[in-house]
Amino acid sequence: MLKIRKRDEPWKWGALVVFLGALLFSLLVGGLILAGHGKDALHALDLLWQGSFGNAWALEGALLKAIPLFLCSLGVAVAFRMQIWNIGAEGQFALGAIGATWMALTFPDLPRYVLLPLMFIMAFVFGGVWAFIPALLKLKLRVNEIISTLMLNYIAILLLDFLVFDAWKDPASFGFPMTPEFTPGAVIPSIGNSGIHWGLFFCVVVGFGLWGFMRFTRLGFELKASGEGARVAKYAKIRYGMLVLFVMTLSGGFAGWAGCIETSAVLGRLQGSLMVGYGYTAIVVAWLARLEPLNIAFASFLLAALRVGVENMQLELQIPAAFGSILEGMILLTVLAGQFFLTYTLERRQGGE
Amino acid sequence: MWDFLIPLFAATVQSGTPVLYATLGEMMTEKGGVLNLGVEGMMSIAALAAFWTSFTTGSPWLGFMAGGIAGMVFGGLHAFVCVTCLGNQVVSGLALTIFGVGLTHFLGVPYVGLAAPGFNPFDFPVLSQIPVLGEIFFKHDMLVYFSFVLPVLFWFFFRRTSFGLHVAATGEMPAAAAAAGLKPVVLRYFAVLAGGFMIGLGGAYLSLAYTHLWTNGLSGGRGWIAVALVIFAFWRPGRAVAGAYLFGGVMAFQLRLQAVGTNLPSSLLLMLPYLLTILVLILSAWRGRRIDAPAALGTNIEPEG
């Protein structure tokens, strides 16, 4: 008979072991699902590997996808740290893209060094407002933020649809739902001759900025302290309400930036294909990374690589892209289950106890 | 006017039904103290399981059961992660949704556009003859009639049976329940599995009665609306009925407007149910009755030792 016992001290490399175990388990089950589907599972997993890490081109693709994931997940993580469940990164991402596009279409002739900052500011404002609304509703009316942020996701995507199908539709697009192409001034350029754009640099700056903010400022300290909940914050004389509004705005602003970067650097216009669920994957990333900025960088790269790998499988074996969501969901579920072993351990029950 | 309203109300009942099943299922889960945000994923996979079963066996009833069982299996996953392994309930539910929606899209590909035998409307004997009400409530399929009984059973279970009281006790105070000799872990499993079954039935309704075709994205946010409605309903089955039909009404109304053809773009019309969800939460928060939520909702039971 096995007995559950609380660990006396935390399991040192436990988190990593659990994570790797979950990854392995999920790939195994994923392989079985593919085999059940009449595909050669080993070949498919090899394609997944090749597509993710196999060559420079794959790595570049992963790095590109890691950029929006990193920013969204950073946003999700700051909110989660305060136990504010912002599930709305997807919508805030869309709003950021809309804000940036609005600037790009309104001032197409401005030089890049004016237009791009304008787009980033507007993306932050739009994404931030989209997160500020549920924060305010939570504080003033105790409206559950999980539901309100989620509903705002659906609304944001429909708003984006409305803009590309109606209001901002390019008259020269032959009926395709998309805005006109951005002028060069509104496009984030590539770094040298690589396929990577300057958004990567922006991520590094934001990442270090947030780290420094959390570590060296009073507000950052209060933010960490409030993670224990509203009551603890009150004892520490922290203005919890203000902090919630601030954190949510920041969280939405980060996702908004991701939307701006993706629209400007990758698509060069606003269109529906922008929405591929980065906002939801960001939640997986944030939780896998245990809400730590540096871990988030690694985890977003890893899950971005997984997405690229799945795309490779999709091309070669006609496996639906949804396979990526299956893996993501499964990894997160297994990690959650496995985290049990970080605080508890099983041991053989002594006879006669 | 009646020519417009009666079909609209009848359509309201029909589109409200899957939401009603799911809302009651989530309510059952939450009564046991477990928050399950996987409803959207569970409804999706249940809709597919139901469709597939009916498609291969030709029996819609088997399909309906398969939907319930699929919901229960997913509920079991959630219960294992949260009740047994003490995982975070919010995150586990989200993971379940990501997993369930993904799996549905993945497995559903070969069936898109295909039809399966489903449930067809019929005039309920005698009752359908009642003027107006008969037209609205008693010219539906069997599953709608069944959904009329379900809230009553739900109420009876929690108010009149001792087992129901035990389940509610683990949602309120699991420690006290354990002290009284109950097994909170087992009771919580029951709540999540039974709730999952009902959520699954809601999903099955979508593919077997609401449409008889398989399409992607069939649940379209209904699972999330169900989670919101549990709050709106203050964990009471009677109000769940009101909430579900309110949503059914908005969905039916918006479909009708699109069919009639208005100047409003469809994407703006489609926002209505989601805007209404937020509005409904604001209104229920206004009444400020947070007390009705099970006290231990969202917190796991720590094992001894």
Based on the model shown, name its key terms.
heterodimer, A: 353 residues, 71% helix, B: 305 residues, mainly alpha, ABC transporter involved in vitamin B12 uptake, BtuC, 13 helices
Describe the structure in your own words.
Chain A contains 14 helices and 2 strands. Chain A has helices at residues 14-36, 41-54, 56-81, 89-106, 112-141, 145-167, 199-216, 218-226, 230-235, 240-267, 278-288, 293-317, 323-338, 340-343, and strands at 2-6, 344-348. Chain A starts with a strand and ends in a 5-residue tail after the last strand. Chain B is built from 13 helices and no strands. Chain B has one domain: ABC transporter involved in vitamin B12 uptake, BtuC, CATH 1.10.3470. In chain B, α1 (2-31) runs parallel beside α6 (142-160), α6 packs antiparallel against α11 (237-260) and α11 (237-260) packs antiparallel against α13 (272-286). Chain B is globular and about 60 Å long. The interface between A and B is large, with 50 and 50 residues.
What form of chain A results from the Cα inertia axes? globular
Tell me the total number of β-strands of chain B. 0
Radius of gyration of chain B: 19 Å
Give start-end ranges of low-pLDDT stretches of chain A. Answer: none
Strand content bin of chain B: under 5%
Low-confidence stretches of chain B: none
How many helices of chain A? The count is 14
- Strand pairing plus helix content of chain A: what structural class? mainly alpha
Separation of termini of chain B? 68 Å
CATH architecture of chain B: Orthogonal Bundle
Kindly report the spatial arrangement of strands forming the biggest sheet of chain A.
1-2
Return the average pLDDT of chain A rounded to an integer.
89
- Describe the main β-sheet of chain B briefly: none
User: How big a fraction of the residues of chain A is strand?
Assistant: under 5%
